[in-house]
Amino acid sequence: MEATEIKNKLSILERAFANDYFIVSDDLKILSIDDSLSRLLFREGADNLLLTPDLLSEDQTSQLLEEGSLTLLREGRVYELLSFPSEEYLLIKVTDKSHESRLARELETARDINSEWRNLFDKYGGDTVWITDARGNTLVVDEKIAMNLGVPKEDFVGRNIIDLEREGFFNPSVGRLVLNSRKIEVALQQTRNGKLFLCVGTPVFHRNGSLSKIVIISKDYSSHISLSEFIADSGCESIAMDELDPVAEDFITANSAMLDCLRLIKLAAKIDVTVLLSGETGVGKSRLARIIHNLSGRAGKPFIEINCGSISPSLIESELFGYESGAFTGASKEGKPGLIEAARGGTVFLDEISELGLSQQVKLLEIMQDRQLTRIGSTRKTKVDVRFIVASNKNLEELVDLGYFRKDLFYRINVMPVHIPPLRQRQSDIPLLTDYFIKQNNKKYKNEKTVTPPAMNALLHYSWPGNIRELEHVIERAHIIAPGRFIGIEDLPSGISGSGRPEKEDGMVVVNKLGSLQDVVEQAEKELISLAMEKYPTSREIAEALGSNPSTISRRMEKYGLKRKGQKDKI
């Protein structure tokens, strides 16, 4: 071949393959190489150099020619070489794999760090991995995650998880939760296309205690896994429960704020101190009060729960403090000990303490200070050995300022305050509690039901003003009225079922309940044609967009009663 012809061919190849390739003659002389690629591989340029021995050993060259590929380590970087031979020259493609090699090492580290989680997810059928740095910037993202989000995984590398959450790729970001809490977080995450994933985020720390990485493992929720079983297997509950002893094993949470409450409760339980539980109605104050009692040295003694708001104001003094014979009209001849006295040696839980009148507040303060009680109609003081736990769903400090609650009593009961967050701030607990109540009802009604992903999505997006108590009642109601083994979005109250329906993307049909295949197909066809009618003015354009023909589209429009704007009914 003439030198000019060779030169022309090389010029064409150079333009075609840019700087990812270099060209070698059949005698292994480097004929053409881009300057930047030359500097990467040879540092000082590749003019008049040979492939072997200037770049590769004989064994490496043999491997490249025989197998068509070779991994090359050069100046601390990793390159992949692919050969494309012809009769006249050898075309070699060079790909810098250093970044992928680093990510592979990071992923391997994640596998070691989170091996228990990975084994658990494998047990339940597959998993995906996402790794970020200490600022939430993506280092590694699994191919499956990218597929679920409909974006090439290369587009995620380097992106910050908080930005991705803000842009609507998923909600909530379990990585953001870990960044905020520096603790293991569990969340049910919804992607922008409506899929649900159970996500576990684990912080990884340097030896000096600073955050190094966040490892996130996700499991597709649509397989109807048992969340309570999963959490029990995972040990998420044991984050709190191992510290709280077996007596509290049925308190379900994976929320960091709630776990902090439980740790504080454990400390308070061991000291005979008054605990003030605050929080909205239905958050579980009564359950936590019983946990404190069970963890205390008074566990074998009585636990007396008194709802101050449910007892008539005219009776509350006699119920709390007791009375002597003849103390008032209708009093028992023998007299009667009050509930506080009946709890001797144990714990008195005063729920809704804000409902006590000022006169009862005075007497309660005396008992707490002096550990002595005077029954109604008596002048004799009786010693009482009880521990008080009090609770309120109202702001007691505001009531003090308004004059409805005694300041001295507030200071007396506010020794160990514990605030319990509402359920709407504990979104990761909603699926866990739902699954717990489902299992309770399955046992109660002797059947096997589960919640569908659309229904779970609705539960996650509802505000739950009645908190856990409301969730419990909603699940039992849905359990009773659901006709089959699946509790769907149509089985939830209307105020809840409307809160979780995913918005439909263009061309997406959302099916929320079972029906005949023909009905579902026809509904999808109707919605698809309706969508096309909004964009295209003629049947021909609609047909082209949907890959059909105009006559078919016209028949379908007539069948479904679909009309264009301005079109009148046939007479």
| Total helical segments | 25
Specify Rg, calculated over alpha carbons: 35 Å
Low-confidence stretches: 13-18, 235-249, 500-507
What integer is the average pLDDT? 77
Give the distance, in angstroms, between the N- and C-terminal Cα atoms: 82 Å
Shape descriptor: elongated
The percentage of residues in β strands lies in 15-25%
**Largest sheet: spatial strand order:** 7-6-11-10-9-8
Helical content class: 40-55%
The helix-and-strand class reads alpha+beta
Number of strands: 22
The largest pleated sheet is described as:
6 strands, antiparallel
Q: What secondary-structure arrangement, pairings included, does this model have?
A:
Layout: H1 3-17, E1 21-25, E2 30-33, H2 35-42, H3 51-54, H4 58-67, E3 69-74, E4 77-85, E5 89-96, H5 98-113, H6 115-123, E6 128-133, E7 138-141, H7 143-149, H8 161-166, E8 170-171, H9 174-181, E9 185-191, E10 196-205, E11 211-220, H10 227-234, H11 236-244, H12 256-269, E12 275-278, H13 285-295, E13 303-307, H14 316-321, E14 322-323, E15 336-337, H15 339-342, E16 347-351, H16 358-370, E17 372-374, E18 381-383, E19 387-392, H17 396-402, H18 407-413, E20 416-419, H19 429-445, E21 450-451, H20 453-461, H21 467-481, E22 486-487, H22 494-497, H23 517-535, H24 539-546, H25 550-559
Parallel strand pairs: 12-19, 12-20, 13-16, 16-19, 21-22
Antiparallel strand pairs: 1-2, 1-5, 3-4, 4-5, 6-7, 6-11, 8-9, 9-10, 10-11, 14-15, 17-18
Helix pairs in contact: 11-12, 12-13, 19-21, 23-24, 24-25
Question: How would you describe the overall organization of this protein?
Answer:
With 571 residues, the chain is an alpha+beta fold. It has 25 helices and 22 strands. It has a 6-stranded antiparallel β-sheet, sandwiched between helices. Strands 2-1-5-4-3 form a 5-stranded antiparallel β-sheet, sandwiched between helices. The protein has a 5-stranded parallel β-sheet with strand order 13-16-19-12-20. A hairpin with a 6-residue loop joins strand 17 (372-374) and strand 18. Helix 11 (236-244) runs parallel beside helix 12 (256-269), helix 12 (256-269) packs across helix 13 (285-295) and helix 24 crosses helix 25. It starts with a helix and ends in a 12-residue tail after the last helix. The model is unreliable at 13-18, 235-249 and 500-507 (pLDDT under 50). It comes from Candidatus Allocopromorpha excrementigallinarum.
